[in-house]
Every structure is written in structure tokens, then in C-alpha cells.
């Protein structure tokens, strides 16, 4: 009997077709498998799971997956998967590194430019019929050129952002678990900050690219926000819970920081009510990797890991496990 794969949401069709050539494939309705119980109820029928970052692949789900051989997340981040439980139940876990670096880095730059030059605010003003006269003092923003970018998390995406920012004339400082390779530091002319405190005091823009772990949960909290100069812009395309949203909303409403560009939220798809009304804040629905090329590459990488495991390839030959 053909092995079976559950893809929890519709993804790029050529990826589904690739898996359908080999396996029995079911594709869930959008949002259905955000519910842990529904996922746990359905999982026993499958040998492989291709979940979204919004699906809670918990111990309960993994334990229920009596035939489950692999979970191939449709994302680079995997904080939605209980890795310990996967290990305990001998289920392989794959993610999708590398393929979304450019898309996420470009998108981050887009947020940086949009917030610092007040693009959405300006468009709103125009569409509301308020543009009656060219004003020399209208919509003054900050240039990226000659300003300092503080990167928290200098992995693939952080590095991609830093490279692009440097090309725009920004100075780069960064905080990471450890210093990056000296060649990369030299290429970016980047200065290492050993603490987040030190980094935020010197940054015009702070951009977050660390994974969500126990250590980074609410890393950007009231104390850290209070150290930011009052025109600092915070950009988050990593995971919502890296930021204490209550504290951020407070800082934006008070004007104690300059603005924010947020693609991710702690309780997605819910938006913190105070962030909804926060000034100088651009909010987007977790779309940093949403380009056609990247979403296809993400799907293909996840599908290849599934094929590798279900065909019994040695795990050392599956690079994204
Ligand atoms: C990921 O892959 O982790 C991203 O957040 C998706 O955009």
C-alpha cells in the first residue's frame, strides 16, 4: 500500500504533484490543523506530515502518529514542533534553511524603508484627500544612509539583511550567541555587541533575526525598550514572542521609540489590541517569505526530505534534517 502524506494546507501545486506521484496525499483546509486535537485525531493515518508553522506539532500529536516517520516543516523556524517528543518517538524533523534567506532579507529591508520614510502613513494621507499642498516639512523621515543597524541574530537571514543594509550605507552592529567568522565581520565592517543592552543604545534601527527559544522569549521587553533612543525603529520578521508586545505597544503609544515594522505576532493570527492602534507601526501578516520562488523552494525542500525518509535514504544524505 502506498505511504501517505498529510500536507496541512494548500501549498504550491507542483510540490503537491511531486509527492502525489509517489504517495497518497491529503491536503487540509486552511487553518484546520491549527487545532492540536484535530491534528492528533487525524495523524494516525499518515507516514509523513508536512505542517505549517501555525500547526502545533506537540507531544500529543507526535505520540498519536503511530506510523509517523517524518515531520517536514514548511518553514525554517520550528518552534511549533516539540523536538524532544519527535526524538523520543523516533520521528525525523526537517526544516527549510537557506531557501528563504533572500526573500526574508528583502522583505525586512522593505519594512525598514517603509517605516523610516513613513510610506503607509503618507499613502493614507493622500488617499484621505489631505494632499492639498506640497509641504517642505511634510512626512520627514530618517534616511538609512549613515545610520546604524543593530542586528540581533546574525544567522543566514540576519547576515542577508546586514549585507543589503551595508549596500545602502548603513553601519552594522550585531549581537549573536557568539561572534561571527572574522571574514564576515570584515566584509560587513560589523561591530560585535556582547549584550542586547549595548546594541540597542547605539542603533537607529534594531532588527530581530533570532529563533524563538526559552532564552529569546520576550527578549525585547520593557527594560530593553527603555534603553532605545526615542527615534529608534524596531523591525521584527523572526517570531512574535521575541517581543513583549504589551511593552512595545506602550513604547509606541508613548512615543518613547520612533516606530516599528512587524511581520510576526505572539498570538498569530491575533493582533495585540494595543498594537492595532499603535502609531508609526506597520503590521503585515507573516509574509516575509511570501514570494513565488521562495514558497516553491520551501515546499520542494520539505517534499525532498519526506521522499528521502520514506524511501529509506540515510539521514546523513538529507541535508535539512
Ligand atoms: C519561517 O520559515 O520560519 C518563516 O517565518 C516563514 O515566513
Spell out the blueprint of helices and strands:
Layout: E1 4-7, H1 13-20, E2 24-27, H2 36-42, E3 48-50, H3 59-64, E4 70-72, H4 83-88, E5 92-94, H5 101-116, H6 119-127, E6 148-152, H7 156-167, E7 171-175, H8 182-188, E8 191-192, H9 196-202, E9 205-208, H10 222-227, E10 233-236, H11 245-254, E11 259-262, H12 273-276, E12 281-283, H13 292-310
Parallel strand pairs: 1-2, 1-3, 3-4, 4-5, 6-7, 6-9, 7-8, 9-10, 10-11, 11-12
The structure holds (2R)-2,3-dihydroxypropanoic acid.
In short:
The chain is 36% helix and 14% strand. It has 321 residues and is of the alpha/beta class.
Explain what the structure shows.
By secondary structure, the protein is an alpha/beta fold. The protein has two domains: 4-99 and 292-317, 3-Layer(aba) Sandwich (Rossmann fold); 101-283, 3-Layer(aba) Sandwich (Rossmann fold), CATH 3.40.50.720. It has 13 helices and twelve strands. Helix 10 (222-227) links the parallel strand 9 (205-208) and strand 10. The model has no long low-confidence stretch (mean pLDDT 98). Bound molecules: (2R)-2,3-dihydroxypropanoic acid. Residues 109-288 form the D-isomer specific 2-hydroxyacid dehydrogenase NAD-binding domain. This is D-glycerate dehydrogenase. Keywords: NAD, Oxidoreductase.
Give a quick set of tags describing it:
321 residues, Rossmann fold, 2 domains, 36% helix, alpha/beta, binds (2R)-2,3-dihydroxypropanoic acid, seven-stranded parallel beta sheet
Amino acid at each position: 500500500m502506498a505511504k501517505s502524506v498529510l500536507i496541512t494546507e494548500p501549498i504550491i501545486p507542483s510540490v503537491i504533484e511531486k509527492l502525489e506521484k509517489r504517495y497518497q496525499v491529503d491536503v487540509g483546509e486552511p487553518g484546520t490543523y491549527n487545532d492540536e486535537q484535530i491534528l492528533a485525531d487525524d495523524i494516525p493515518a499518515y507516514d509523513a506530515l508536512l505542517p505549517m508553522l501555525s500547526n502545533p506539532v506537540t507531544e500529543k500529536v507526535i505520540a498519536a502518529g503511530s506510523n509517523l516517520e517524518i515531520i517536514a516543516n514548511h518553514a525554517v523556524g520550528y518552534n511549533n514542533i516539540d523536538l524532544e517528543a519527535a526524538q523520543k518517538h523516533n520521528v525525523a524533523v526537517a526544516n527549510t534553511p537557506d531557501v528563504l534567506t533572500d526573500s526574508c532579507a528583502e522583505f525586512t529591508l522593505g519594512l525598514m524603508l517603509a517605516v523610516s520614510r513613513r510610506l503607509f502613513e503618507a499613502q493614507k494621507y493622500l488617499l484621505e484627500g489631505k494632499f492639498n499642498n506640497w509641504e517642505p516639512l511634510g512626512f520627514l523621515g530618517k534616511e538609512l544612509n549613515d545610520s546604524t543597524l543593530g542586528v540581533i541574530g546574525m544567522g543566514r537571514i540576519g547576515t542577508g539583511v546586514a549585507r543589503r543594509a551595508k549596500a545602502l550605507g548603513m553601519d552594522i552592529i550585531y549581537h549573536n550567541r557568539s561572534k561571527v567568522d572574522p571574514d564576515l565581520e570584515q566584509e560587513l565592517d560589523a561591530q560585535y555587541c556582547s549584550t542586547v543592552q549595548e546594541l540597542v543604545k547605539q542603533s537607529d534601527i534594531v532588527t530581530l533575526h533570532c529563533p524563538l527559544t526559552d532564552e529569546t522569549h520576550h527578549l525585547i521587553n520593557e527594560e530593553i525598550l527603555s534603553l532605545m533612543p526615542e527615534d529608534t525603529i524596531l523591525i521584527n520578521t523572526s517570531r512574535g514572542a521575541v517581543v513583549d508586545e504589551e511593552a512595545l505597544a506602550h513604547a509606541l503609544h508613548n512615543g518613547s521609540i520612533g516606530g516599528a515594522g512587524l511581520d510576526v505576532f505572539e498570538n498569530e493570527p491575533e493582533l495585540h489590541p494595543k498594537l492595532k492602534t499603535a502609531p508609526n507601526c506597520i503590521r503585515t501578516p507573516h509574509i516575509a517569505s511570501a514570494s513565488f520562488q521562495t514558497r516553491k523552494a520551501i515546499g520542494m525542500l520539505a517534499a525532498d526530505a519526506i521522499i528521502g525518509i520514506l524511501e529509506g535514504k540515510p539521514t546523513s544524505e538529507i541535508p535539512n534534517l
